[in-house]
């Protein structure tokens, strides 16, 4: 019997990522019966089931779970190969995949990338947003905007500045509830923060909060950073916002002398991409764009 084809593994990866045949069919641009046949053919060739079927849907077996990490690497490699093949190394044509945090991708990058797309209309941009650090060595992305010094080897990285975060609220909220004069006063305010996914809080270790920073101190909880900022803009309460975003939106600083921290901002890409003109153009554009953004007062 021949080895399973990459086409079958792509369908398995799509089902594992999306959780259902219908969602996988949409992501792959195939019909649901075709995805189902791919899974059945793969199970026959592997000699074991990949999913347990029930009225509630598909449940991956241990075999499927064991293949997931390999499939993610294969998928990343195939996507990187497609990007590399999309344009010659010395041309201004093809695609570039950028990884960034949700807030940077929603609130900062569009303004920076608009100018790039105007100057280089034949370069397509793929944007992957996540607060996890994408693996550039595996080519999950070509270029990354990171809020910490890159630690992976074989990277070209440039520090572009420091990104500051502080407490902010709308003037309307402060008019209604009054402005807190100390961290202890926050007990009487609506604080906006995380829910289930505890973010890295190393930057807050030197801040003398009156009690431990857990989800219980927040009256409005969400793990979506963009939703947090939307809630602050709507006047729901007080929360952490990048200084540049807060000033742009007319938000009012709260307890600026008691709560503030900074993050390093880096642009990084794999060193093997230095020879690609479109990658270098994007890397240099991001360095310049973020340098200007972080320099705004």
From TrEMBL:
InterPro entries documented for this protein: LysR-type_TF_proteobact-type (IPR058163), LysR_HTH_N (IPR000847), LysR_subst-bd (IPR005119), WH-like_DNA-bd_sf (IPR036388), WH_DNA-bd_sf (IPR036390)
**What keywords would UniProt list here?**
DNA-binding, Transcription, Transcription regulation
Q: Which residues form the HTH lysR-type domain?
A: 4-61
The answer to whether the entry has keyword Transcription is yes
Show the Gene3D superfamilies listed in the entry: 3.40.190.290, Winged helix-like DNA-binding domain superfamily/Winged helix DNA-binding domain
The record's listing under Pfam families reads: HTH_1, LysR_substrate
Q: Which family does it belong to?
A: Belongs to the LysR transcriptional regulatory family.
Any idea what this protein is called? LysR family transcriptional regulator
Organism whose genome encodes this protein: Phenylobacterium ferrooxidans
